[in-house]
């Protein structure tokens, strides 16, 4: 996936301006992120290595980024402890997940 | 993160929440148009390759929103509509330009006016255009699909609609490939097909074509399906292109094969076919699809190999015959490899090879029967001109020639076998089926030669006598192997056994065998190959030989133990032969007298006392046995004393050690008491000794006619065999350079091809033996089964005897008749099929 010209990291931007730098490989768990960065299609995002989400606020995106790392870190392991998710974020996270196709 | 079970519920929740939480724009009716406008302009940009200006997130969000608002269907239709429009307005005109008039004309099979080169150029342009269109389409649709991902995921899945990608592929199929070209009524697809096939055809004719280009187009066909179900077996490639490809290939190879058949030889055909197969395989790799691999291989095999296989095999000067003749192993190897592909059982090759083997074998058989005939001719002359001074040496050489011919026959058979074995190893990958076939044919022609058993046994005899001298163990082994191979082919093993025993007898008793180790090896191999019953008697013969040696030693010790060392004592070596192990006809020196009783000869007293001494020694420990002395098989060392030759000053007394047959000894002893100058006639000698005429004649000839040890003079002096009426004198003038002389052995004691009469005798004996074996087998079978139909009985007996010989049905019938007569069994009355019953 990562050709030499591509950075190993991508930047995810929330609608309130927070930026999260995540491993490209980890972020590509999300179908949407993966496709938006696909160099073959060549959308604006893939050129910049930066995806802006106008619908997701910083708090949720932070959790999403955390999940990406968590998922990536534990990808080959079994019996992994659950990630902690504050109940008040549940709904918004679910929506974000649906949106991101994660 | 989200389980798919919740998708439906989730969409609902989110739809609810959009309004409350404001994820996305506010919900309103005109919202669809806003979002669609964004998407439509984006689609245009995508098609025009300006995607880098677009934000994926924005577009995705647009489609997301539309779908969330349950307007997925509208979106789906709009996109489809858009694509159709795009094809119509932008793509088709380009394609249309590529389809020149020429192209459509050639596709429709008209105007052959264009050259290959022109066709190639226009074709390539067309393919390139189509390929570019296809690739553009794929890229665009990939991007579109990406953007509309949410729609595919939620709307299409929920409504069981084909994804937008599939749909757009279908659109491509319908609008591009199946649309009619502007100028004519053939569709783009036909043209595409034609162009590709035309190019492949060019390549087959040796032109260079753009393989990659074709490959891309084939990829396109592989990526498209007959319907939107995307059924694997309904790829356009498989449904439209491949059948056409196979059809034209069939035609092409049919013609090519016809041409080869007309114009070239089998070698070229083989190489061309192999080349074509490799080419087609490569083509499937590089140009068309792998899916076609085995199908096209089948086409080539069918058209190039199967169809005319027999024509090529029969080709004069280069067909199978020539290949075998000239050891064209390479050709044969290719042939085998090709045929393996077509037919695992190698039927055609098998038949052809078999025919060839049998032909070659017949030639060998023919050549030997010709030599035999040639030899037989002068023999007859001899017989006719008996009495006229015909040297009998010629008969001797004639017999020797026949023997040599027999051995030559075996050698030739072995050579042929070697040749085919070699071929089998190098060319036929040691194919089992072919081996069996070869074995069958060898067996067929070997058994077609009626004297094969005798020849093979003679061959072994020859090798065991002289052949293995100075050979290494490995070489000896090879010879034995060959012999065994031949034995395996022989059908009438009983006949072979008879001859082998006969030849072995002579080898053993006359001390002709080169190495007893090798003899024993041979026997143990035969045992492995043919079975125990076959070798038991032969082994008995060997056992007799070794007990005889022991016995002789024991006897000598016994005599020494007696203390009376007589100077005149004759040293005795005996061979005790168990009578049913040893073939009587081989033992029999001459034929039994007319009355069938072999008369014992009159042994001289010196010998008789010796015999008595031994007999009593022998019977002391072995009661109830009977010893018969077979004088004609033995030989004796005699010290002879010759006086000075009168009138010859230089001469002096001479002493010679003479090795003569035992009969010779008896005869010589007669002359001991004879006054000088007198003679004994043939009849005198016979009367005194009682030696049978045949044996006597032989013994006399060896000491009175053949020059090497002519210690007797024969009157009349000529080179003829001694016969009644001749007179014999002591030959005082005998001179020899050596003191030890071995009287030459008369013909008959060395193994050679039998004369017709002898042969008939052997066959009769064999038939008699077979008769007994059949009797035995029939009785055994009937005893076990009690009642059996004629058919079953015969089948059973033939099966049981097949390892020994192939029983003649006529003979079997006779044997059964005689068994019924002897009341071993009876016919069952009123049976629907002829049936026998065993009578206890």
UniProtKB/TrEMBL annotation, chain A:
<feature type="domain" description="SKP1 component POZ">
    <location>
        <begin position="9"/>
        <end position="73"/>
    </location>
</feature>
<dbReference type="InterPro" id="IPR011333">
    <property type="entry name" value="SKP1/BTB/POZ_sf"/>
</dbReference>
<dbReference type="Pfam" id="PF03931">
    <property type="entry name" value="Skp1_POZ"/>
</dbReference>
<dbReference type="InterPro" id="IPR016073">
    <property type="entry name" value="Skp1_comp_POZ"/>
</dbReference>
<dbReference type="InterPro" id="IPR001232">
    <property type="entry name" value="SKP1-like"/>
</dbReference>
<keyword id="KW-0539">Nucleus</keyword>
<comment type="function">
    <text>Essential component of the SCF (SKP1-CUL1-F-box protein) E3 ubiquitin ligase complexes, which mediate the ubiquitination and subsequent proteasomal degradation of target proteins. Controls sulfur metabolite repression, probably by mediating the inactivation or degradation of the metR transcription factor.</text>
</comment>
<dbReference type="InterPro" id="IPR039948">
    <property type="entry name" value="ELC1"/>
</dbReference>
<protein>
    <recommendedName>
        <fullName>Elongin-C</fullName>
    </recommendedName>
</protein>
<dbReference type="GO" id="GO:0005634">
    <property type="term" value="C:nucleus"/>
</dbReference>
<dbReference type="GO" id="GO:0006511">
    <property type="term" value="P:ubiquitin-dependent protein catabolic process"/>
</dbReference>
<comment type="similarity">
    <text>Belongs to the SKP1 family.</text>
</comment>
Automatic annotation (TrEMBL), chain B:
<dbReference type="InterPro" id="IPR036317">
    <property type="entry name" value="Cullin_homology_sf"/>
</dbReference>
<feature type="compositionally biased region" description="Basic and acidic residues">
    <location>
        <begin position="753"/>
        <end position="768"/>
    </location>
</feature>
<dbReference type="InterPro" id="IPR045093">
    <property type="entry name" value="Cullin"/>
</dbReference>
<dbReference type="InterPro" id="IPR019559">
    <property type="entry name" value="Cullin_neddylation_domain"/>
</dbReference>
<feature type="region of interest" description="Disordered">
    <location>
        <begin position="747"/>
        <end position="768"/>
    </location>
</feature>
<dbReference type="InterPro" id="IPR016159">
    <property type="entry name" value="Cullin_repeat-like_dom_sf"/>
</dbReference>
<dbReference type="InterPro" id="IPR001373">
    <property type="entry name" value="Cullin_N"/>
</dbReference>
<dbReference type="InterPro" id="IPR036390">
    <property type="entry name" value="WH_DNA-bd_sf"/>
</dbReference>
<dbReference type="Pfam" id="PF10557">
    <property type="entry name" value="Cullin_Nedd8"/>
</dbReference>
<dbReference type="GO" id="GO:0031625">
    <property type="term" value="F:ubiquitin protein ligase binding"/>
</dbReference>
<keyword id="KW-1017">Isopeptide bond</keyword>
<dbReference type="Pfam" id="PF26557">
    <property type="entry name" value="Cullin_AB"/>
</dbReference>
<dbReference type="InterPro" id="IPR059120">
    <property type="entry name" value="Cullin-like_AB"/>
</dbReference>
<dbReference type="InterPro" id="IPR036388">
    <property type="entry name" value="WH-like_DNA-bd_sf"/>
</dbReference>
<dbReference type="GO" id="GO:0006511">
    <property type="term" value="P:ubiquitin-dependent protein catabolic process"/>
</dbReference>
<dbReference type="InterPro" id="IPR016158">
    <property type="entry name" value="Cullin_homology"/>
</dbReference>
<feature type="domain" description="Cullin family profile">
    <location>
        <begin position="451"/>
        <end position="704"/>
    </location>
</feature>
<protein>
    <submittedName>
        <fullName>Cullin-domain-containing protein</fullName>
    </submittedName>
</protein>
<dbReference type="Pfam" id="PF00888">
    <property type="entry name" value="Cullin"/>
</dbReference>
<comment type="similarity">
    <text>Belongs to the cullin family.</text>
</comment>
<keyword id="KW-0832">Ubl conjugation</keyword>
